[in-house]
């Protein structure tokens, strides 16, 4: 690995008193490269979540934040202003996280699904509200948090952490152990799953014990939407074998198929 660096844990670090490893996962929620790492992250969580805690650090490209635009659309009550800006998805994710880490992760996953399907503008405030409804957030709370200083500050904190750690490639993962004096290990870019396993094992200095993988039905209960490639990757099978298993469940009306130009997605019904 050429893009690996040692660095200090930031002042805003989360306690790792229960689990010995902390992962800082730097992602641009609108970048296609984030989708490439998603299967690796999900498999790591499924097999080794008992060893680490994690947090997403949003790393929206600042060059894309200079093109503020607004658009108006008609509605029954008159003219409704629908703000449209590349920073809004990141603010929405931080607003969702104020309802808990799992709520934030659900929101991020659904947002990325929208980006992949490319059927609605995720820079639109109206679309971001719709995503919040779909992942069953408290809408009154989300609407208030979306416009709050807390959500804006949380996003600014992510950008600060990105600068402090000198993360210049997205996606990146930074590994910290429970000893605050030790340096973290920064890994920029996408690598094979075995590389991340090896890093965990070296940092823990023990033989890793993986948790058993869930059934496909349990997997969809956890993640709702997955690609054929993700299912194949998680279960170490060919895409053809994964598609056969998924089609069986589609015929049983447990999942539905969504075809895009870039991938085949499957969604729990």
UniProtKB/TrEMBL annotation:
Indicate yes or no for the key word Cytoplasm: yes
Alphabetized Gene3D superfamilies for the sequence: Glutaredoxin
Swiss-Prot/TrEMBL keywords: Cytoplasm, Isomerase
Top-level taxon of the source organism:
Bacteria
Write down the Pfam families for this protein, in alphabetical order.
Thioredoxin_5 (PF13743)
Please name the GO terms that the record assigns under molecular function: isomerase activity
User: What is the annotated localization of this protein?
Assistant: Cytoplasm
What the record says about family reads: Belongs to the SpxH family.
Question: What exactly does this protein do?
Answer: Adapter protein required for efficient degradation of Spx by ClpXP under non-stress conditions. Interaction with Spx stabilizes Spx and exposes the C-terminus of Spx for recognition and proteolysis by ClpXP.
Q: How does it assemble?
A: Interacts with Spx.
What is the protein's name according to its record? ClpXP adapter protein SpxH
Q: What phylogenetic lineage does the species belong to?
A: Bacteria, Bacillati, Bacillota, Bacilli, Bacillales
């Amino acid at each position: 690995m050429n893009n690996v660096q040692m660095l200090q844990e930031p002042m805003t670090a989360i306690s790792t008193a229960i689990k010995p490893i902390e992962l800082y996962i730097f992602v641009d929620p609108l970048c296609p490269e984030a989708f490439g790492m998603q299967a690796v992250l999900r498999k790591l969580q499924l097999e080794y979540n008992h060893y680490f805690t994690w947090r997403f650090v949003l790393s929206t490209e600042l060059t894309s934040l200079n093109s503020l635009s607004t658009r108006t659309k008609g509605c029954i009550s008159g003219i409704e202003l629908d703000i449209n800006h590349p920073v809004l998805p990141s603010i929405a994710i931080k607003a969702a996280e104020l309802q808990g880490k799992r709520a934030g992760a659900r929101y991020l996953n659904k947002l990325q699904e929208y980006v992949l399907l490319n059927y609605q503008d995720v820079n639109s405030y109206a679309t971001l509200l719709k995503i919040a409804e779909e992942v069953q957030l408290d809408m009154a709370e989300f609407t208030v948090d979306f416009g709050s200083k807390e959500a804006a500050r949380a996003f600014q904190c992510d950008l600060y952490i990105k600068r402090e750690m000198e993360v210049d490639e997205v996606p990146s993962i930074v590994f910290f152990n429970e000893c605050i004096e030790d340096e973290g290990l920064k890994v920029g870019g996408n690598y094979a799953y075995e590389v991340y396993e090896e890093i965990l094992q070296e940092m823990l200095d023990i033989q890793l014990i993986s948790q058993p993988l869930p059934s496909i039905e349990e997997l969809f209960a956890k993640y709702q939407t997955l690609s054929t490639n993700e299912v194949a990757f998680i279960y170490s099978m060919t895409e053809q074998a994964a598609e056969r298993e998924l089609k069986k469940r589609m015929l049983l009306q447990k999942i539905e198929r969504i075809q895009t130009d870039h991938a085949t997605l499957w969604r729990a019904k």
